Amino acid sequence: MIIKGKIKDLRMKKKYLSIIVVPHSSSSHRTYSFSKRKLKFILGLTIFFVLLLTAFLIDYFTMNVTRTKYKELLSRYDEQHQTLIAYQNKITDLEKTINNFEVYTQKLNIMAGLKSEDILNTPPGVGSGTGEESGGTNNSDVSNPQEGLVALESLQIKSESLQKNLNILSNHFEEQSLQLAATPTIWPTKGWVTSTYGWRNDPFTGKRAFHRGLDIATHYGNPVLATADGVVIQTSNDKIGGKTIKISHRSGFTTVYCHLSKFLVRPGQRVKRGQTIGLVGSSGKALGPHLHYEVRRNGKSLNPYYYILEEQ
What we know:
Blueprint: H1 2-15, E1 16-21, E2 30-35, H2 36-112, H3 145-181, E3 192-195, E4 198-201, E5 208-211, E6 214-217, E7 223-225, E8 230-238, E9 242-248, E10 253-263, E11 270-271, E12 276-280, E13 290-297, E14 300-302
Antiparallel strand pairs: 1-2, 3-6, 4-5, 6-13, 7-12, 8-9, 8-11, 9-10, 10-12, 10-13, 13-14
């Protein structure tokens, strides 16, 4: 019986694990015995829960990082959305400005005589100057960037067309400015007209003769002005005209100033409108101090009075 008991105890030691708990407050103790099968089950269950907790923690931290990135992306999306709206508003404002500018350039073209007035009767959407009629993009629809690119391409085409048109207008008005500056439009001296352009009785012979300019009586030594921009082509002194200056201007214009007392310019010199070129005198065939003034175009004499724009 004793041998069998020992064998049984050995079997018990092999199959069971005992845990003895001894409290500090008492001398008694407790023993907990676990079989290998139960111990394996507990160990497996513990590993399972550890793995489950580890997976949960990993998932939690991963989701936390994902939520943080999502918030950042959402914030960036809101910022980009607001930026797109701002760009869309600027594109619309720019489109309105270009359309208004287009209408203005069309009017300038008409004023310059480069285009017909029919150009202003264009359908809505071309140079109307208003967002509703100019085909402006919708500010509330910023989800399609392709529409914004199309609007920008349209504005680029319009701006290039306007630039070409403005270059033409600039050249035209520059030419007009040069033309106006070279047209004799002011009085050559201050005084009073004693003889007009046309037929008259010659004061020396009494016979009918054609007078090709204006005689302006004034004080001896008064300044004589160039009536337009040009180049002095001649300063001469002859028996009839006395001291005479001839100035060549653009578009075939020539002005002549006779009976001067003094030259203040020389041949080949460029002069500006209003520049003093000489002094009034009575040289040549003259009854008293006055200026004989002529305007010619391509060699043909014209009535100077029709070109003078200022009051005497």
